[in-house]
Amino acid sequence: MVELKSAAALDAMREAGRVVAQALAAVRDAAGVGVSLTELDGVAREVLAKAGATSPFLGYRPSFAPVPFPGVICASVNDAVVHGIPDGYRLRDGDLVSIDCGAHLDGWTGDSAISFTVGTPRPADAALIEATQRALDAGIAQMRAGNRIGDVSYAIGEVAKATGAGMPADFGGHGIGRRMHEDPHLPNRGRPGRGFPLRPGLVLAIEPMFMAGGQDAYDVDGDGWTLRTADGSRAAHIEHTVAVTEDGPRILTLL
Ligand code: MG
Ligand code: MG
């Protein structure tokens, strides 16, 4: 069932989204060569705690997962696409890092992700991140009443196609509200004019995941969580929580 959110609910979701943005900004500030993923998780925990927010990631256990998720961020480095567990790995010069974070505040949820490089970026990584951002922007631009889910999916998929990027087929965006994952599912490829109609109050987490090698194939680590490109190429993941409003798309996870 798809729940359309009231204007008051959107304002409350904006506050949850603001906490996510603050946590991501703090993590990005703290990230650098030699800093561990556990330390970055600690930075995000502090921001959430100070805001009185809880983490929808911590302890999360979907059906595919063998263990509850142990962090408040997902930290996916280089060939890791999404769902990386923040561990003792220390960032190295040139690493491509994707950080996903959520916050639950006053009954509402925000979900957002950023990708960035540490130290000296490889030109190909900068281009991959830029293309992923362009796909997110293209998807957000379609978040208008009268459009359909397929318009958002198609916009993302077209940027992937033009870039030559692969995307993990079974993963995409999702409805979000009181819970992190709600209906409807938002595929990262689709046909324009098809699928669930977009109405004011619909909120989606839009999250393109680009794999530089161009294949859709991925592997899952032995931890049961971390998704990696099957060809070892690098990946980027960027996400915003976005509402359809009478006045067009409203991004709820901006700083
Ligand atoms: Mg996320
Ligand atoms: Mg999400």
What's the pLDDT, averaged over the residues? 98
- CATH fold label: Creatine Amidinohydrolase
* Count of the separate structural domains: 1
| Strand order in the sheet with the most strands | 6-5-7-12-13
Radius of gyration: 17 Å
The major sheet is characterized as:
5 strands, antiparallel
The counted number of beta strands is 13
* Category from helices, strands and their pairing: alpha+beta
CATH superfamily: Creatinase/methionine aminopeptidase superfamily
**Helix/strand order:** HHEEEEHHEEEEEEEEE
* Main CATH class: Alpha Beta
CATH architecture: Alpha-Beta Complex
Number of helices: 4
Query: Which ligands occur here?
Result: magnesium ion
Share of residues in strands: 15-25%
Low-confidence stretches: none
Describe the structure.
The chain has 255 residues and is α+β, with helices and mostly antiparallel strands. It has a single domain (7-251), classed as Creatine Amidinohydrolase (Alpha-Beta Complex), CATH 3.90.230.10. 28% of the residues lie in helices and 24% in strands. It has helices at 7-30, 37-50, 123-141, 149-163; strands spanning 73-77, 80-82, 96-105, 108-117, 173-175, 182-186, 203-206, 209-211, 218-220, 227-229, 235-237, 240-245, 248-251. A hairpin with a 6-residue loop joins strand 5 and strand 6. It starts with 6 loop residues before the first helix and ends with a strand. The mean pLDDT is 98. The structure holds magnesium ion (2 copies). The site of one magnesium ion has 5 residues, from strand 4.
